[in-house]
Amino acid sequence: MDSEVDPISVIEDYLFKSSSRVANGLKGKGLTYLQLSYLRTIDNKGQTTVSELAKTLNLTKATISSQIKRMEDSGFVSRRKLERDKRSARIALTEKGKEICTSWRDIQASYLKRIRSHLDAKEEESLQKLLMKIVNGPLVA
Fold first, then answer.
1. Interval 92-118: pLDDT, tens
2. What is the CATH number of the domain that holds 54?
3. Predicted confidence band of residue 78 (pLDDT cuts 50, 70, 90)
4. 30 in any annotated domain
5. Domain for residue 1, yes or no?
6. What is the extent of the structural domain holding 80?
7. Which of 31, 91, 92, 102 is positioned for an S-S bond with 35, CB 3.0–4.6 A?
8. What is the spatial distance between Cα 30 and Cα 6, in angstroms, rounded to a whole number?
C-alpha cells in the first residue's frame, strides 16, 4: 500500500468534518444536514424554485419537492405560486428559516476564526487565492 497522502482525500475528509461540526451546532432544530443545505442555498439565492434548487444542488426535483414540503410544514420555508405559471412556486425562507441561516453563519464564522488563528497574513492570503482557484476551476462546473 502506498504511504503517500492523497491531498484530495484529506481535503474531502476535512470538509466533511467541518460541515458536520457546523450541522452539530444546529442540532435540535429539526432539520437534516441536507435540509440545512437547502436553506443555505435558498438564503444565498433570496428566493428560488424547486427546479432551480434541483439544478444548483444536482438533485432531482422529486427529492427537492418532498424535502421542501417537510420544511414548509415545519415552518422553515414558504411557497408562493407564480402568477405566470401556476405549476411553479417561489420558495422563500420564513423568519424561522432565516434564524437558522444566521446561526449557521455565526458558527461558520467562529470556525473560520479558529482556522485563521493558525495562519499568518501571508499564509491566509495564499490559502484564499488557492481556494478561489479551486472553486473557480473546471471540476466545479
1. 999 999 999 998 888 888 888 888 888
2. 1.10.10.10
3. very high
4. yes
5. no
6. 7-135
7. 31
8. 36
- Please report whether residue 109 resides in a domain: yes
Please check whether residue 2 lies inside any domain of the structure.
no
Q: How many domains does the chain have?
A: 1
Q: Count of CB atoms within 10 A of residue 96's CB?
A: 15
Q: What are phi and psi of 73, to 5 degrees?
A: -65, -30
Cell numbers describing residue 43: 438564503
**How far is CA 118 from its chain centroid?**
25
Please give the Cα distance from 19 to 33 (Å, whole number): 9
45, 52 in Cβ contact below 8 A?
A: yes
pLDDT in tens, 18-49: 777 777 777 777 788 788 889 999 999 988 99
pLDDT tens, residue by residue, 79-96: 988 777 667 789 999 999
